[in-house]
Amino acid sequence: MQKILRDCSVSLRETLRSHQIKTVASLLTCDSAKITSQTDDKKELQSIQHTVLNQFSCFPLSGRSLLDDVMSSFFILPTGCTHWDELLDGGLYSGEVTEIVGSAGSGKTQDISNILSRIKCFQIFDLYSLIECLNDVTPPLYNEDDVFYNNLQFLVVDSVASVLTPVLGGQQISGMHLE
């Protein structure tokens, strides 16, 4: 409260003190016209109230805009197994952790291996290897015979900074982190 009122006039501070307004909540809920009826501080008090509300309030968002935000980053990754996809309502959902449990020997590892077989991972530590990898991946995208690339839905390049930093003149890389 002291930080909020540090730049206001002395008369306004005295008026607020005389009306027992000591908290931000009481400042925001007070009737500025009633409190400042005997002084010329009404506009200053309203300005402070408005500033505090603008800085510390959350503004309402429509449900539609929230839904649009979620849907723009939401996707379902099919597992490749119709039975798993039925159980999971279409596949693995983005932003969720899916835990698969069952008794020993029930096939959990085999099923996960099947799902992971649909993922390719390349370990790349420099820009030239990244460009080479992207050039290798591009032609199969247009080949309708290659099932993996035909169903490719997204490509992830993790830690682009560690690949680009040496080329752009940044710090040298040691392992997977910058020194």
From TrEMBL:
Pfam families: Rad51 (PF08423)
Primary location recorded for the protein, binned into one broad class: nucleus
One GO term of the biological process aspect: telomere maintenance
Any one Gene Ontology cellular component term annotated for this protein: replication fork
UniProtKB keywords: Nucleus
Domain Rad51-like C-terminal: 76-110
Nucleus listed as a keyword: yes
InterPro entries: HRR_RAD51_Paralog, P-loop_NTPase, Rad51_C
One function term, GO molecular function aspect: ATP-dependent activity, acting on DNA
Compartment(s) where it occurs, according to its Swiss-Prot or TrEMBL record: Nucleus
Name recorded for this polypeptide: Rad51-like C-terminal domain-containing protein
